[in-house]
Amino acid sequence: MKVIQVLPELQGGGVERGTLEIAQYLSAHGHESHVVSAGGSLVKELEAQGSSHHHCEVVAKSPRSFKGVFQLRHLITALQPDIVHVRSRIPGWVVELAYKTLPKHKRPARVSTFHGFHSVNCYSAIMTRGERVIAVSRTIADHIEQAYGVENQKIEVIHRGIDPSYFDSASVDREQCAALRQQWVGSGAKAPVLLLPGRFTRLKGHALLLKALGLLRDLDWHLVLVGNHEENSSYTQELQDLTQQLGLLPKIHFHGICKHMPLAYAAADLVLNVSTRPESFGRTAVEAMGMERPVIVSGHGGSLETILKGETGWLFRPNDFEHLAEILNHAIMHRGQWKLMGEKGRQHVSEHFTLERMCAKTLSVYDSLLQ
What we know:
Structural class: alpha/beta
Strand order of the largest sheet: 3-2-1-4-5-6-7
Radius of gyration: 22 Å
Shape: elongated
Strand content: 15-25%
Number of strands: 13
Low-confidence stretches: none
Oligomer: single chain
């Protein structure tokens, strides 16, 4: 099988990581893997895994992308791939225009992946043009059906997956884990450590969580905020001001970027995802469960498909900080359940949300088109 994946660039992020995961899986199973993008820091890693990278201007809404149309047409003509897998909207339009210049019998089967809730318009509708549309959750599949009128049989739900050998608490160095925890909250701290990983944007719900914890200031706990708080300094300052207003300064810790997330999950006791808008999938909660950590998540979006309520974690009403406080209070008061919930979470992820499962189902989509 010969597959071309097309995306804007390879700088980092969920779309890029998913592209590399499929590319590596293709190469490891004897298929020919090609990736088309405007380049980036992940190109060397991609090529080291056995895939070929082709530089093409598919990154911006500009006349430069029209150059990409002819580059891609030439590449398809030369390689004669079986599948072209579109990962984003600009590449979707480049592929569409390139296809229009090719005879129908020379157009490879086309697959696209909806990674999130795109704005509903003609520009976004390009992601529904392929023979198959992959949705990263049932929530996204419902969005595609309702917003674009795509027939259900054309949509394939393939949840994102993690590598359980990487997100494995047994593989974490205990001394490093203890050192990180001490770096976060100091030595001798017995209170549970709550972890909120994610970008410092309003959508991630930092302020919502701080307000909820403001109602629980008399309980013993620490909250660690992991993420690049320098990328949005004004928002970070708002959060620090709110922390002071709520009287939470000794309990809130702005840690910054953590390059080894399994270590961060292992150093925490409870992991949160409190996004104010629905997540298309909610990867951090799945990673945390893989690390045997119970989770608390907003009860909307893809999280409804990954969390077993009351078994691997808790759900709260989205954007309701008072309900979040109730759930947090309940969780902290029942810390004795956390170990069992963590073990259940690990089992749940191993059965439903592994990288192997995601890649195998994607190749099954390719196979079905070639049949």
